[in-house]
Amino acid sequence: MRGKPEKKVTSRIRAALFQVPAMLGPFSKMRVFFHRLRGVNIGEDVEIGYLVLIDNLYPENVFIEDGAGIGARSTILSHDAANRWLGKGPDIVGTTVIRERAMVGIQCIILQGVTVGKGAIVGAGSVVTKDVPDNAVVAGVPARPLK
To answer: Nearest CA to 72 among 110, 106, 26?
Structure first.
């Protein structure tokens, strides 16, 4: 048991240490490299824009598959700390997945536990609170399918 807390502290330090270069690297490949060092699971040919925040406490619970794109200033979460802050229980932690060839537009928020389907498009400024089906186009706050 003693090794587990130390590992968690080590992974949190690693996630924090590489956060700034992951957000500000001059090239997408560099930003991907530093997010991988933070523990984010990232496939091949992924594009990540400037100032993208991928969960600061549980980056290992975020999966970005091959060919996906994340627009600048977007946030991808894998936990919700509201219960803990309110004294109502522990963090809600989930697995957040951006599937192959999905595109998350500029300044979007993807909440914990959400899956953005293969080839789906999330419009700029959207807040995604529920799973997005494959090849769907969603936008808005909260994000809803466009007709």
So the answer is: 106
Entry pTM: 0.91
User: What tokens were used for 36?
Assistant: 């991988």
Quick check: helix, strand or coil at residue 15? helix
CB 36 within 8 A of CB 59: no
C-alpha pair distances (Å), 76 with each of 116, 126, 143, 146: 11, 12, 14, 22
> What are the chain's domains?
3-145 (2.160.10.10)
In angstroms, rounded to a whole number, what is the distance separating the alpha carbons of residues 39 and 132? 24
Q: How many residues does the chain have?
A: 147
Q: pLDDT tens-digit profile of 115-126?
A: 999 999 999 999
